[in-house]
Structure to design on (986 residues):
């Protein structure tokens, strides 16, 4: 039960007025005049008697009438979604428990569980609580309930995971929970190690004004931690044997002193080398293993350092692709100079996984044989071949090949309805204003631009003096646009392959993109993605999704914990969320035989930084709002509930009945004559 | 002695008559209806007896014929004296304004005086009025022509203030040097000795004194039940009291007081009549006439 206007409850204090008048001010009543008091002597009324209530039923009737009146004015209602009988004293509590990887540091997780249990055990019988576990995502493991035991049971099943920390996700879920529950004041209990790296996204977050965030910090002072950094694997061919060279870095933070660590490499489950390395107190050390003979197929590996207080980041999982050589046919127009493609070729020549081998050729030489084992054809400002070569190219793409068309100052394509090109291309002259253009809208959620998910600004830094104009064709997907709204990158799937048209100038004549730091990752990802080889990355971080090859009939993924995931397919293929660190294996149809693909997933590097922040710092930059925009046009839930229930009418009716009862009660029987003088009747004889 | 016209003497009914003259005439006519003996027989100069001359007697009343025969001075006494002077003294203190019913003691006193004055006027008496509280308030000297003035003054008077009866009576003794009848209407909230001394002072001056003691029904019965603060009408003193516990004591003390007053006034040669305001006026009128008959001898 709650009240729409609880301030009126102060009127209950009026109950004291008749009591005080009766008990304290009775001697101020109108006195009884009498001719003379010479025959009366003082017999004071005893205090105890004056303070005695002589007619309790009548007093209670009148007090009840006053209570009903006050309650009617306070406009009571029963909160929607609350248990019947709950009062406004009941609390609405949302417990957010951090289960990110950093919570497995030393005894942090047991302390977090104890803190959460204390909060849950401290709830009153009418309190309502919801339990949310979060890392980089938030999961409501127990919706609002009045039974704290349910929340405790859900808490018992919780374990720290391998994902990073994002407080913003937890606060957003709490905000939505609170909005659905409709509580007037919501207490948010955040049980966490207050890892500073998880604060990203909190600034600018709008929180309801009825939020009271209470932080239970469980971090410990000793934050020394070491982790295995990114892994680099390179295949090589020595005397006909496939060798792989593995390199990595061991990163250390906040240790008391440098120390020596052993770093162990395992490939396909077998120990493949151990290296002793000196690790500074805060810093990193490069670790290079001796080349190890490996089979030609996929090779899974893990690198482990000596366990420390946070063991979850002491092992890095990775997968060496089966064949990391990716053959790219660079087809340039006849009049294109070497300088035009210099930046592109050099960027693709940088060693990495996979290795990219660029073969430059003219459009005339492009035929079915040349396409052979090529993974990607990149048309550099050149028109697509026609005739048999064109047909061969179309068939090759449909079977899974990748085609990138770089639109420059020479290429014009129109009538794309039956063409392989997913956009019409026209040459655009330089802007009349002379102002360079830039990218204005990029979809970093697309796999092609996924390297820029956390560095979107790097793409915006490039400036272009001129660029081709693209008009997307049917089924084409615009991945990026210029700041004038025109398409910059367009993709369309053709059978099992992809065709990507890039209007972003990749030379230094029309812009400075090759000079920007985003250029190298962009062109590599452009090649890898379009060639369909982006699944061959050595490792991903938890929280990302693994986009599965579209050629699979029924993809099945075996997760690190042994669970089997059968992802649903949609128009864009299938993907699997990477929730746990470890090795993911891809099968088609069922988990049997050699996996078709593998992927290592590791916790994000930021999660290994245990630097905490203060309680106040967590909410810096958040803004409070009274109602959400969508709720602003609607009356508050309390008013709606009160108006619908209209208990005040019942109270007024009860008050009327009570007043009639009181009138009859007070004027009948002895009460009606109790305070009247029984005067003698006229004609009474003198005694 | 009640008669058939008694309802007309009901003070509650009389309270509805605003004109005191009409009221007095109605009371007296109603009261006189059916009386067996004319009260006017005393208006003749019928001889009653001789008595020895006393210094101070009027020389004109000496019967010279008897002196011629006996050589002694005798004066004649007659059956009636139509020139009696009646002074009505009404207690106008605030205690007289009390009334538990529709008629206060002061109203009742005014009805009573108006009726008695009308009655006295019919008998040829001179009538006068004096109201007093702390001091004399209104004074109408006795005269055969002052009845209307008396009634008018009586109608405009109000009871208020406090005062002692002895002080007012002392002033009354100086007001009229001629002996007559003093009708004192009061509620007797004085000590009996004080009342007796006041009556003595009037008697020494040769006045016949009739004291009408007016009492309200509430004073008689003390019917209060709830614990209440009582306020003295004259002094304003307040006392928180529990009447149930005090009733017996009050009634006993009141009875003692009445007995003491009656005894003391009787000892002073005064007629004492206690009248309750819820009783008809005829009882007071009878008492008055009885007193007049007893003093109907001409001195």
């Amino acid at each position: 039960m709650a009240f729409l206007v609880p301030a009126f409850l102060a009127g209950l204090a009026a109950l004291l007025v008749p009591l005080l008048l009766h008990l304290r001010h009775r001697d101020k009543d109108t006195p009884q005049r009498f001719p003379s008091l010479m025959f009366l002597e003082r017999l004071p009324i005893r205090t105890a008697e004056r303070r005695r209530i002589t007619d309790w039923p009548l007093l209670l009737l009148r007090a009840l009438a006053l209570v009903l009146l006050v309650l009617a004015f306070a406009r009571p209602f029963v909160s929607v979604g609350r248990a019947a009988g709950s009062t406004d004293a009941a609390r609405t509590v949302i417990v957010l428990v951090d289960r990110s990887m950093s919570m497995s540091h030393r005894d942090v997780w047991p302390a977090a569980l104890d803190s959460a249990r204390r909060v849950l055990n401290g709830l009153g019988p009418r309190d309502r609580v919801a339990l949310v576990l979060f890392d980089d995502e938030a999961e409501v493991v127990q919706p609002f309930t009045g039974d704290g035991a349910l929340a405790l049971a859900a808490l018992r099943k919780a374990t720290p995971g391998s994902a990073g920390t994002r407080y913003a996700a937890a606060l957003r879920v709490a905000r939505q929970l609170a909005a659905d529950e409709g509580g007037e004041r919501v207490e948010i209990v955040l049980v966490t190690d207050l890892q500073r790296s998880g604060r990203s996204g909190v600034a600018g977050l709008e929180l309801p004004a009825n939020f009271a965030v209470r932080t239970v910090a469980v971090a410990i002072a000793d934050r020394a931690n070491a982790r295995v950094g990114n892994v680099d694997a390179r295949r090589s061919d020595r005397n006909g044997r496939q060798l792989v060279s593995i390199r990595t870095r061991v990163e250390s933070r906040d240790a008391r002193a440098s120390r020596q660590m052993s770093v162990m490499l395992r490939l396909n489950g077998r120990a493949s080398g151990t290296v002793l390395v000196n690790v500074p107190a805060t810093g990193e050390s490069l670790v290079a293993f001796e080349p190890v003979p490996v089979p030609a197929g996929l090779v899974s590996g893990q690198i482990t350092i000596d366990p420390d207080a946070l063991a979850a980041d002491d092992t890095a999982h990775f997968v060496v692709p089966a064949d990391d050589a990716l053959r790219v046919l660079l087809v340039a127009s006849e009049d294109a100079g070497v300088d035009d493609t210099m930046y592109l070729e050099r960027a693709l020549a940088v060693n990495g996984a996979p290795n990219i081998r660029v073969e430059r050729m003219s459009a005339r030489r492009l035929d079915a044989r040349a396409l052979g084992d090529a993974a990607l054809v990149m048309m550099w400002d050149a028109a697509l071949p026609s005739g048999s070569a064109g047909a061969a190219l179309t068939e090759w793409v449909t079977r899974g090949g990748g085609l990138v068309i770089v639109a420059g100052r020479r290429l014009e394509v129109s009538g794309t309805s039956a063409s392989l090109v997913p956009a019409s291309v026209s040459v655009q002259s330089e802007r009349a204003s002379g102002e360079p253009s830039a990218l204005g809208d990029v979809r970093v959620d697309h796999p092609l631009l996924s390297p820029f998910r956390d560095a979107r600004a790097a793409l915006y830094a490039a400036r272009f003096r001129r660029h081709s104009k693209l008009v997307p064709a049917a089924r084409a997907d615009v991945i990026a646009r210029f700041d004038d709204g025109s398409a910059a990158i367009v993709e369309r799937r053709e059978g099992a392959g992809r065709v990507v048209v890039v209007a972003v100038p990749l030379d230094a004549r029309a812009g400075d993109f090759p000079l920007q730091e985003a250029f190298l990752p962009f062109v590599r990802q452009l090649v890898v993605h379009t060639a369909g080889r982006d699944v061959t990355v050595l490792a991903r971080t938890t929280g990302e999704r693994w986009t599965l090859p579209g050629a699979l009939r029924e993809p099945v993924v075996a997760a690190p914990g042994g669970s089997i995931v059968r992802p649903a397919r949609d128009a864009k293929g299938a993907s699997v969320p990477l929730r746990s660190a470890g090795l993911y294996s891809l099968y088609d149809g069922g988990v049997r035989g050699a996996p078709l693909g593998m992927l290592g997933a590791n916790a994000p590097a930021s999660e290994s930084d245990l630097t905490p922040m203060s309680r106040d710092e967590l909410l810096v930059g958040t803004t409070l709002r009274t109602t959400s925009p969508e709720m602003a046009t609607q009356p508050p839930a309390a008013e709606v509930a009160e108006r619908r229930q209209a208990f005040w009418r019942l109270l007024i009716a009860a008050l009327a009945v009570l007043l009639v009862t009181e009138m009859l009660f007070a004027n009948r029987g002895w009460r009606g004559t109790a305070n009247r003088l029984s005067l003698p009747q006229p004609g009474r004889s003198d005694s | 002695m009640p008669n058939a016209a008694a309802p007309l003497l009901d003070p509650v009914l009389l309270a509805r008559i605003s004109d005191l003259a009409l009221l007095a005439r109605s009371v007296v006519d109603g009261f006189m209806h059916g009386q067996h003996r004319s009260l006017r027989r005393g208006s003749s100069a019928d001889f009653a007896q001789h008595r020895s001359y006393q210094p101070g007697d009027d020389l004109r009343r000496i019967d010279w014929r008897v002196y011629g025969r006996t050589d002694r001075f005798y004066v004649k006494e007659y059956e009636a004296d139509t020139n009696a002077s009646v002074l009505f003294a009404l207690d106008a203190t605030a205690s007289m304004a009390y009334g538990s019913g529709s008629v206060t003691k002061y109203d009742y006193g005014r009805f009573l005086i108006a009726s008695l004055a009308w009655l006295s006027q019919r008998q040829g008496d001179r009538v006068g009025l004096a109201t007093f509280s702390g001091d004399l308030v209104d004074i109408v000297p006795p005269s055969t022509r002052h009845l209307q003035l008396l009634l008018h003054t009586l109608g405009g008077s109000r009871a208020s203030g406090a005062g002692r009866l002895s002080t007012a009576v002392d002033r009354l003794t100086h007001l009229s040097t001629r002996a007559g009848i003093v009708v004192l209407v009061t509620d007797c909230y004085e000590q009996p000795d004080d009342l007796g001394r006041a009556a003595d002072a009037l008697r020494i001056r040769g006045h016949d004194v009739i004291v009408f003691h007016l009492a309200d029904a509430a004073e008689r019965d003390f019917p209060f039940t709830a614990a209440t603060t009582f306020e003295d009408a004259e002094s304003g003193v307040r006392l928180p009291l529990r009447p149930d516990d005090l009733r017996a004591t009050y009634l006993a003390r009141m009875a003692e007081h009445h007995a003491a007053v009656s005894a003391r006034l009787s000892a002073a040669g005064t007629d004492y009549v206690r009248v309750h305001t819820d009783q008809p006026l005829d009882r007071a009128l009878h008492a008055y006439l009885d007193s007049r008959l007893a003093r109907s001898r001409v001195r």
Summary: Residues 91 and 186 of chain B are 5 Å apart (CA to CA). Chain B touches chain A through 48 residues (CB under 8 Å). Residues 1-8, 34-44 of chain B have pLDDT under 50 and may be disordered. The first helix of chain B runs from residue 11 to 14.
